[in-house]
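Encode chain A's predicted structure.
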Amino acid sequence: MSQEPGRTRFAVDIGGTFVDAISYDDTTGELRLHKASTTPDAPARGVLDAVGGLAGRLDDVEAFVHGTTLGLNAILQRRGADVGIITNEGFRDLLEIARANVPAQHMYDFSYAPPPPLVPRRHRTGVPGRIDAQGTVIEPLDEDAVREAGRLLVEEHGLRSLAVCFLHSYANPEHERLAARILREAYPEVSVSTSTDITREYREYERTSTVTLDAYIRPVLNDYIASLESRLNDAGLTHPLHIMRSGGGAMTSELARQAPLMTVLSGPAGGVVGASFLAREQNLAKVITFDVGGTSLDCCVIEDGEPGEVHEAGIDGFPLLIPIFDIRTVGAGGGSIAWIDEGLLKVGPHSAGAVPGPVAYRAGGTEPTVTDVALVLGYLDPSGFLDGDMTIDADAARDAVAAKLAEPLGVDVTRAAASVFQVLLARTVGALREITVERALDPREFALLAFGGAGPLLAPMLAREMGIATTIVPQVPAAFSAFGMLMSDLEYEFATTVLRPLTDETLAGLEEAFAELEGQGEEVLSAQGVKPEDRTLIRRLDVRYHGQEHSLGIDLVPGDTAAAVLARFSAQHEARYGHAMPEPGQILTLRVRAVGRLSKPGLRELPPAAGAVPEPIGERPAFDVASGETVAFPVYARATLGAGHEVSGPAIVEEGTSTTVIFGDQQLTVDRYGQLVITGGQA
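Encoded structure for chain A:
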């Protein structure tokens, strides 16, 4: 690959089915994409396979950003480390007792039983010592008991990862830090996670769950990052490897090792960052992201260029106290299996994954997937799959749909295949309503930004279903999450719980606490080599009405009064929940976001297309959801469509790694950035 030294950027995103690698040439603005199969048994090999399709050596690479769901998969598949928990005496069962509530979806299920805790009781132990809610030590930590707990968990039970979480450590982390120092001195080869290194917020159960998950995935992530760094260095990479954070932004691999839980949803976060960048660059006030990969479908609302964010989330029933984008995930993607359950058609959450994959891959899969169904309906070209690099058997896909779906349902193959998309769309509409209609937002006022390998295929259907007027397919949609990683700054967030009334006196007294958090932010950015002029520190308050449980984040600006903060909080509360209350405010948590600005590629405008729309490269029969019939779809190569070109549906636009389907009542326009803009079709 011939490129100007120091002007190339790489980003890599690991999905459930494929690894996406993208390179960006700062000089020419050229974006290049290569996909390789995910290798679950050796994830680093899949990354190197994808990168190798773009460059033999990485000596010219200026920046390398990586997003991975390895930690997430370790949690979902229960393949993390065996963890030991050290907490206060009498609280060893906190993780199992949890909040003693029943999930809403099981409210009337009298046979419901909570899942077993991630850490068995024999691996949980308590030690004497206590700090109260004001941070005052009322009983010294028993250091000998900590040593005995370490001996029991490490020497007797053979554990190699420990989580330390004490009551009220958010107010005073002294005991956690002392326990961690004792354990690390006694067992330097053992991984030790402390709750206050991840989050200094109240709610002891949620904080215990968070640090336990961190300890659970830490050995897995550390081994993976070390292996990947070694192989990238052997390939010539001299610049630091950066890892995407779940809440946006990137951090060095060294920091990722210290806080691996911050990377747990780094793959989907890349797409949200990229969508936010496009929204700001193109002045799109309201955008819904629609990211469809091989195993899942992710959606997020972006308003005025800012994505929704939460500071408490959950993974497979385990709560997390970390900043994270407010993403709704549906367990359905290109590899999701369509199946019959007591006469009803269902799609997902089971996935064929990368191995064995859809039936059409001829790699051992026997259950029809969304990809197989798309082949049956004519949307995908068997000879052009992944630019022709992958052999696809459309006949095998049709046979599987016929045997597994059409015959049990008593319908023809086309009807069965179309029904799969109807079921998938119904599930997707439900997820989108959670983050729009249920928050007093009208989805018809938003543009739908479609990406991921299957996003451009499904999005025009979804837009018709929800009455969304505009669907946008960006450049290189199959690797858009990786593209978003190129748009990332270095970011890290620090927080501490204060629980004080929202008054002018309180605001004046927060300076010392904010200064401490900002000092931590400056230290982290300095360690990552960020120059002082490229650093930004953003102060934020989590505010709630007195007596509420949950809060909303409010940016704090110089000169703010309590009345101004409460007014902004009430306005946001009314926008989110439909009402405000005449109650006094309360400050729950202080937050500081430390941002290290990085140079990043911008959007490049294309010259207007010269001449009329080029002739189609072919034609094939496909199912038109607008008419409910199989009709002839002209097929266009995306590379031949220029800025200003317009195409009326039905039509198919192919680009090797992704396919966009425009139905009979829709129109396609190529905008000045080369993006596909689809309109029409709404009621």
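The chain is about 30% helix and 25% strand.
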